[in-house]
Design brief:
about 300 residues, alpha+beta, lpxc deacetylase, domain 1, 7-stranded mixed beta sheet, 5-stranded mixed beta sheet, globular
Length: about 300
């Protein structure tokens, strides 16, 4: 049986929110089988649980925000991407503010925290959401066109193409593909950082956004080049980060996907729209488990390797 996974122990971190700039403490805790991933706002007079689900995503401007009533948890995608990359099903995430800390701007710090706590197999079958029919969402036309698609696939593979007309982006590649069954998420995807243009930063800050952003947690570019002293971590780091985001956005469906995802210029909003379109079509998906490793897609039974 492919078993559900949680943590063996607690793991903690302290950081700042990318947009709020507020200090936030984060505690990752084991959770029982079939709990799913649940954020807990412990800074409130009474702690409020905000379960992860596609329909709990209520704001997708520059990040994915989950809500339960008036209680929000912002910028969840990097942490959820790490959970998906390591195959974690059940987790309590305690936070002391409204926004998940940005840490280094990628998913690598979350991968480190999760792997440091250790991953434990549980006595319950892992439930996958298998896509049975193609589902696609599109917006815009011509130069404004963007789209995202899910198709049947025995595994989980992704391809993402961006379209930024900038010398630094053009020189590193605007398309990337990744197969989750490769076991190389930590090495090939997790370290890709969020990025921004210096000319946009002041505009964002004037709007109360990006207050915690800087060269230590984002790639920042002027009109011609990357301003970070160390340069890029990967070839096509920009496209890899958009794929990293997509993995986190798609994990909001509440189960690991068995599908082929492809996208052109997609973002948080379109990724969530894709999930909602999928869930609205009862003939397009099913929940499955695997009794043996032989039945499962290649690489899905193994725990993700360390760095």
């Amino acid at each position: 049986m492919l078993a559900q996974r949680t943590l063996k122990a607690l793991s903690r971190a302290v950081g700042v929110g990318l947009h709020s700039g507020e200090r936030v403490e984060l505690t990752l805790r084991p959770a029982p089988p079939d709990t799913g991933i649940v954020f807990r706002r412990i800074d409130l007079p009474q702690p409020v649980e905000v379960p992860v689900s596609a329909h709990a995503v209520t704001d997708t401007r520059l990040a994915s925000t989950l809500s339960r009533g008036d209680v929000k948890v912002r910028t969840v995608e990097h942490l959820l991407s790490a959970c998906a990359g390591l195959g974690l099903d059940n987790l309590y995430i305690d936070i002391t503010a409204e926004e998940v800390p940005i840490l280094d701007g990628s998913a690598s710090s979350f991968v480190y925290l999760l792997q440091s706590a250790g991953i434990e197999l549980q006595k319950a079958p892992r439930r996958f959401l298998r896509v049975l029919q193609p589902v696609e969402v599109r917006e815009g036309e011509g130069d404004d066109l963007k789209w995202a698609r899910l198709e049947p696939h025995h595994g989980f593979k992704l391809s993402f193409e961006i379209d930024f007309h900038h010398p630094a982006v053009d020189s590193t590649g605007q398309r990337v593909e990744f197969d989750m069954g490769s076991g190389r998420y930590s090495r090939d995807i997790a370290r890709a950082r969020t990025f921004a243009f210096s000319k946009d930063v002041e505009t964002l800050r004037a709007s109360g956004l990006a207050l915690g952003g800087g060269l230590d947690n984002a790639i920042v570019m002027d009109d011609t080049r990357v301003l970070n002293e160390g340069g890029l971590r990967y070839a096509a780091e920009f496209a890899r980060h958009k794929l990293l985001d997509a993995i986190g956005d798609l994990y909001c469906v509440g189960h690991p996907l068995l599908a082929a995802y492809s996208a052109f210029r997609s973002g948080h909003a379109l990724n969530n729209k894709l999930l909602r379109a999928l869930l609205a079509r009862q003939d397009a998906w099913e929940i499955v488990t695997f009794e043996s490793e032989r039945q499962a897609p290649a690489g899905f039974a193994q725990l993700a390797p360390a760095w």
